[in-house]
Amino acid sequence: xxxxxxSGSSSIGQAAIRVLLDAGHEVCATYRSGVPEGLDRATWVHxxxxxxxxxxxxxxxxxxxxxxxxxxGLSLGLKxxxxxDDRISDVVDVNFSGQFRAIQRMAPVLADGSQIIILGSQAxxxxxxxxLYGATKGAMHALAKSLAKSLAPRTRVNVVAPGMVTxxxxxxxxxPAVLDMHINTTPTGHLMSVADLAHVLLDIMQxxxxxxxxxxxxxxxxxxxx
Length: 226
Prior knowledge:
Layout: E1 2-6, H1 11-22, E2 26-31, E3 43-46, H2 52-56, H3 59-62, E4 67-70, H4 85-106, E5 114-119, H5 123-126, H6 131-150, E6 155-162, E7 165-166, H7 169-173, H8 176-184, E8 192-193, H9 194-203, E9 216-219
Parallel strand pairs: 1-2, 1-4, 2-3, 4-5, 5-6, 6-9, 7-8
Helix pairs in contact: 1-9, 4-6
């Protein structure tokens, strides 16, 4: 299986690539500021999702991929009044419009029977204290549902929406009181690790998930259960 990972140099991207390579799959991934150490078995391509020129160059490396894994994400943790125009553009470009453009360019060259997996967020399901982050994640969830119809049967589109994930920059940058809130509102009483998320992503790429299309898999320990 060939997997193209957009934003492969992120913490989740690196974990996913390790799992994919260990399982014997071919991986092509993008980086923005540097290729991570220890992952030289993957093929790396420089790309910033905010650059249309970079995105235009991805169709070649993505050709024939069985899975397109979309991992870009930017959360500034700002309130409505704190956003200026430049910050609005950055968050929208990384979390939505850049990924939309990536799909637009790469979907036509994916293999028949391919899948696009979008990394969503619980913020896209229930909102966020950072309203723009929640809105852009929610937009990607909605986009997946639309594309699940328009790209089928050649390509399926699904979302994986975790809660707070340990081992990520977002987790490390979150104040302890907020982390406690996440744990206390999660019925299982613990958060998902980046390694466990990587294994979930690998599993839903397998043929036995062939009927999964237009779905959002929530991985939050039952936070939505009332």
